[in-house]
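U., I forgot to send this yesterday:
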Amino acid sequence: MEQPTGDAGIYARESEYLDRYVQFGEAGDRTISVSFPTQPEADSSEDHPLLDRIEAYLGGDEDNFEDVTVGLTVPTKQRTVLEAVDQIPYGEEGSVEQVVMMTQGLGADEEDDQRQVREALAANPVPLLIPDHRVRDGPSGAPPEVEQKLQSVEGLY
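Result:
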């Protein structure tokens, strides 16, 4: 996928399916945030290839967005969890316990590890691109109604 590079920007487009906007922030060639506001930032642009792909995804086109470069600005412990979540394929789901087992340095039986996974999921700055909606018993960085629609797109409920 070819993306504009160099400048920072905010991009947003209304999604009829989500009944709100899809908005993301980009710095250079890295996507640093994804949100779903009811109104976009005033200085946002709606012209970006990633918005085209997201629109197609919401319309039913399978896309893992694995070629989109994400700039995670989160603590290392959260980064490790989110990198594990990013490995869950389109149309499949996992549990918090499975994410604990997939995450380097965490063990499945520890309550602290499950809390760490839940905190990382809730703080996910790029929901959809890092598919926290595929973790069936965990929170999402997206609003609950958006999370449900993302799950529906992928046939997860």
